[in-house]
Each structure stands twice: as C-alpha cells, then as structure tokens.
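Task 17 of the worksheet. Students: predict the tertiary structure of the chain below and write it out as structure tokens. Keep your answer in the requested format; marks are given for formatting as well as content.
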Amino acid sequence: TADPLSGALVMATFGLATIPALFFLGFLTKFLQKGSLRGTMMKLAALLVILYGGITLYKGYNFVAHPQMMKERMDKMHEGSTDGTLTGQFNGMKCAPGKCG
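Model answer:
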C-alpha cells in the first residue's frame, strides 16, 4: 500500500494471523520427534528426495536426448506471449506508450 499506516496495519494483521500456525508447527515438530515416528518420517523424507532426484534426472535425460521435442514445447509456450514490440499490441489489446490495456 502507498499509505504507511495502512502498510503497518497489513503487516500487523499478517503477524497476528501467523501466530496460530507457528504454535501448531512447534507442537507438530515436538510430536514428530518422539519414538519410532521420527525414524519413519526420516525414511519417508529420504524416499521423497530420491524420488524427486529420479524425476529430475528423467527430465534432464529427455531434454538432452530429444532436443527437437523440447524446442517444440518451448515454441508452444512462447506462442502468442507478446508481439508488442512489432505491432503495438499485447494479446490483442491496443497499447499506448508505457501502457497496455
């Protein structure tokens, strides 16, 4: 916000609204550290990290092994994104200098 008092009010509201979540997180952390649940959570976390690493390696392999497919996907993502520098339009809207809409 442009007004300092409004900004302070927004920050105070955010801070007060965050307190219950932080207390819950502290309680949950203490609960998960007890007994065999901690070992189970560590194994689950390790499994998720390994799974995410495998997915990342697979995506990297596809990027290297099939460059044409990746180029087609990139071209499709950029299709119609902006042509403002050439035609004065952005996604079909007329643009004035410094403004679009």
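Marker's comment: The chain has four helices and three strands. The two ends are 23 Å apart (CA to CA).
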